[in-house]
Structure formats: C-alpha cells, structure tokens
C-alpha cells in the first residue's frame, strides 16, 4: 500500500507535465522537446522565490505559471508559427518543430547552466510526515499532489465546460474544419501552446518542493512526458492522466522492490509494451 500511495502522489506532477505536452502537440501540432527545460526553469523559479523572497512555492505558481505562459506564447509566435505557416503537411511540421525545439532545449539548458551551474538544488518546504493509511509520507508531496489535482480539474472544466475550451478541442480534432466554423485556429494554437507551457511550469514548481533538481535534468522529464502522452493517446487528456498514474506507480514499485537505478528501464518497458500492443494509446482509436 505504501508503494501505491507514493506512486499516486508522484503521478500528480507527472500528469501536469503530460497535460502540458498534450495541449502543445494535440492542439498546436508542436512536438516540444524543450518541455523538460520549461519544467526545470520553473523549479529554479520556485526555488528563487522561496529562498530569496521567502514566498511560499505554492503561491509562487501565481508568478511562475503566467511567466511561462507569456514566454511560450512568444516562442510560438516568433519561432514556431512560421513553421506552421510554411509546412505543407503535418509530417513536415512535426519534423520541423522537433528540430526547432531540439535547439531550444540546448539554448534553455545552456542559459540555466550559466545562471545556476551544474550542481543540484533543493529546499525544505513542509518537510514533515503526514500519515496516510497509518504510514508516514512527506507533507510536501501530499500538498503538491492536491495542488496538481486542482489544476488538472480546472483544466478539465475549461476544456469541457467553456465555449473557448470547446474551440480548442475542435482545433485538436480537425483544424481545417474548425476554421470553417469561424474559429481562429492560429490564435487557439498559440493559446494551447502557451497554456501547455504554463501547466508544465506549474508541475515544475510543485516538483521542486520535494525533488532535488539541476539544470541538466530536463531531458529526462521530456522523455517521461512523451511516453505518457503516447501511452494515453495523443491529445487525450483522460489518457494522459491515467498513463501518468500508471507510470508513477510503476516507477515507485521498481525503485522500492528492485533498484532505483532501473526506474528509467521500467519507463521504457511500459513504452515498448504500449507500442507493441496499444500503439494508439489507452483511449485512442485505431486509424481507419
């Protein structure tokens, strides 16, 4: 039971990271390989607010997430929108966006290494035990999980119970048809890309409360986000959440019962199983 609870608590931040990439790829059609760097930058942002300004890291999400939203909006408008305009098909756009964001990954990583160096950072926030089913867990992990659930719930309400959320989902299904019913596809794509960056930054801020981080670890979380998105079904919010839960529990089980160094191997194993037996994802549908 302790392993399951630990995995569930971890899956909250995993889900937010994957939801951010789901919006960016499912709506804006951008496979963002720099998503992990957005997360790490948010970790440093929350760390700075807490250690320098003594602002609660949960409260600092009110600064970190909007900043990520604005930065990602400009990245899309200045760098990625021209790629969308010139792409003759979705395949070309995916290749171009992968190459462009691959370069951004190294740029952002280099800037963080310049600013913070290569050492590891952490800080003590709510580092006290909290009993669940008679076993102690870190209160910071519990708070981070609850915050992630609230943010994911707000995203669900926006996407499925607001007019603009419906427009964003329409663009994800078919951007051409969405344009025919007077939806501004370009603006909806930019908004989805920026919102995805904000969700990833929120996940980073929450992760920093219980995780040791450094400027070079973004690629690991990019890989995990990609695996969760593919496992859940590209563009499917429900699938991303369920896949994040599966991945969190699997990693915790392997780390606790076998060896912490094999958690990435377990992640890859789940990924390979998905490609072999359910390539369309948990809730995805087979192509006709």
TrEMBL record:
Its principal location?
membrane
Where is this protein localized, as stated in its record?
Answer: Cell membrane
The record's GO molecular-function terms, alphabetically, read: transmembrane transporter activity
Mind telling me which InterPro entries this protein's record contains? ABC_transp_permease (IPR001851), BCAA_transport_permease (IPR052157)
As for membrane topology, the entry says:
Multi-pass membrane protein
Q: Which superkingdom is the protein from?
A: Bacteria
Pfam family of the protein (one): BPD_transp_2
Locate the transmembrane regions by residue number. Answer: 6-27, 39-55, 61-79, 99-118, 138-159, 189-213, 225-250, 256-277
Listed under GO cellular component are: plasma membrane
Entry similarity comment:
Belongs to the binding-protein-dependent transport system permease family. LivHM subfamily.
Q: What's the protein here called? A: Branched-chain amino acid ABC transporter permease
């Amino acid at each position: 039971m302790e392993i399951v609870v630990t995995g569930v608590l971890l899956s909250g931040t995993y889900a937010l990271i994957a939801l951010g990439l789901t919006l960016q790829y499912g709506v804006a059609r951008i496979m963002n390989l720099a998503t992990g760097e957005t997360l790490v930058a948010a970790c440093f942002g929350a760390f700075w607010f807490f250690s320098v300004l003594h602002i609660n890291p949960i409260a600092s999400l009110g600064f970190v997430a909007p900043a990520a939203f604005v930065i990602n909006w400009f990245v899309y408008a200045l760098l990625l929108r021209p790629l969308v305009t010139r792409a003759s098909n979705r395949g070309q756009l995916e290749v171009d966006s992968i190459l462009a964001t691959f370069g951004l990954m190294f740029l952002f990583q280099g800037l963080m290494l310049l600013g913070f160096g290569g050492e590891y950072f952490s800080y003590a926030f709510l580092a006290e035990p909290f009993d669940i089913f008679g076993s102690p867990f870190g209160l910071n992990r519990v708070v981070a999980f609850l915050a992630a659930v609230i943010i994911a719930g707000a995203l669900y309400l926006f996407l499925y119970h607001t007019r603009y959320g419906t427009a964003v989902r329409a663009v994800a299904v078919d951007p051409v048809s969405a344009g025919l019913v007077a939806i501004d596809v370009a603006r909806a794509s930019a908004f989805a890309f920026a919102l995805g960056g904000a969700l990833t930054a929120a996940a980073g801020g929450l992760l920093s409360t219980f995780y040791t981080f450094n400027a070079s670890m973004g690629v690991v979380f990019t890989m995990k986000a990609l695996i969760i998105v593919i496992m859940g079904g590209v563009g499917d919010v429900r699938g991303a959440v369920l896949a994040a839960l599966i991945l969190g529990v699997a990693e915790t089980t392997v780390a606790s019962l076998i060896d912490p160094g094999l958690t990435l191997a377990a992640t890859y194993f789940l990924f390979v199983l998905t490609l072999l037996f359910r390539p369309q994802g948990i809730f995805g549908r087979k192509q006709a």
